[in-house]
Every structure is written in structure tokens, then in C-alpha cells.
């Protein structure tokens, strides 16, 4: 049976974001294990792994920042309508952007 150890979409931005997320998930697991284990040597090993995950995460983020306006991250003519947000919460929180008297949607640019 063949196994794939590298997953590539062909889109550098998507792949880097996936790698960043994977490193973050691994860091969360190591932090959980670190809090559960009292053995000094095991904690030293987990500490090493935590630092390695953090270093990988930093490198992936730096790479992403260099290519962030390419590939799937490009704005391919997204319309204003696609960037609008409507609160459908009932009732709306008091003193919010979504008070009953307001009808204009909040826009995220």
C-alpha cells in the first residue's frame, strides 16, 4: 500500500495555511500532554517538540506573508454583496450594530 506523506493542493497559499493549522493543532496536543505528565524527561521531550512546532509555525507564517496575495488568496472580483454580513440573531444585543432601527449591513473590507 502506498502512503502519501505530503499533501499538496497545488495552491501555495492554501498549502501554507494548512501547514500552519497542522502545527497549531500539534502544539495544542503537546501542551495538553505536558500538563498531564509529571515525568521530568518526558516533559523535556515535549518541551523540545513544542519549541519545534513553534519554530515551524513561525517559518510557515513568514512564507505565507510573502505569498499572501497570490493563488487562492487573490481577490478574483469578489462583489460587495459577498463581503456583507447580516445578523439574524433574535433578539439583537442592545447598543450593537444590529439594533432594531438599523437596516444597513455591517461591511468587512
Attribute tags:
109 residues; mainly alpha; two-stranded antiparallel sheet
> What is the number of helices?
2
Summed over residues and divided by their number, the pLDDT gives a mean of 78
Strand order of the largest sheet: 1-2
Radius of gyration: 21 Å
Largest sheet: 2 strands, antiparallel
* Unreliable parts: none
Distance between the first and last residues' Cα:
47 Å
- How would you sum up the global shape? flat
Helix and strand content put the structural class at mainly alpha
Describe the protein in words:
With 109 residues, the chain is mostly helical. It has two helices and two strands. The protein has a two-stranded antiparallel ribbon. Helix 1 packs antiparallel against helix 2 (40-67). The protein is flat. The model has no long low-confidence stretch (mean pLDDT 78).
List strands and helices in order, with pairings:
Layout lengths: L11 H25 L3 H28 L16 E2 L20 E2 L2
Helix pairs in contact: 1-2
Question: Could you provide a short overview of the structure?
Answer:
This protein is 49% helix and 4% strand. The chain has 109 residues and is mainly alpha-helical.
